[in-house]
Amino acid sequence: MHTDLSPVIAATAQWFTRAYPASGGALADALCEVQARQAVTVAARLRYPTPMDVALLDVAGPGGSARLDWITGADGATAVDPDADAWRTWVDEVVASWAACLLTDPALAEPAVAALAEGGPSAGTPAEFRRLLAPDDADRRAAALLRHPDLVAPVAALHRAGLMTRLDPGQALVA
User: Fold this and answer.
1) Which of 74, 65, 55, 80 lies closest to 10 in space, CA to CA?
2) First to last CA, the chain
3) What is the pTM of this model?
């Protein structure tokens, strides 16, 4: 059993880079992947903040990419080798949705990283997530599809309310 979130982070970041690929060569691919990985890392740590949460994830599993593939239109492609797509079972839909929100809304990314910092000194720092929080022009060009609010909106909308609740747990409940 895994004791960390690395399989979910790796699979969900890979899903993002395949669903919203970079254009512009190897450097653009790398910059896009770093941004996806940073957003997914923040989202995963927010979603599964305790060792017990991670243990429950290991038992129940993250759910896979089927619904995300359907939403983005990638569900029609059949793999020649079914084992080649086994990584898709580690994609977490909620983490992907939260990461999409963070990538397209800087006003959410900053409080999300700040919420991680409340978890202690090893939880993450703004410098660790620089490409998510303060992308430069090269980052923006590389991840144009990944950060495009209209393209990513269907994924972001899936679980945006849960992210908002997680970032503002003290909000009053409305009947």
Assistant:
1) 65
2) 41
3) 0.90
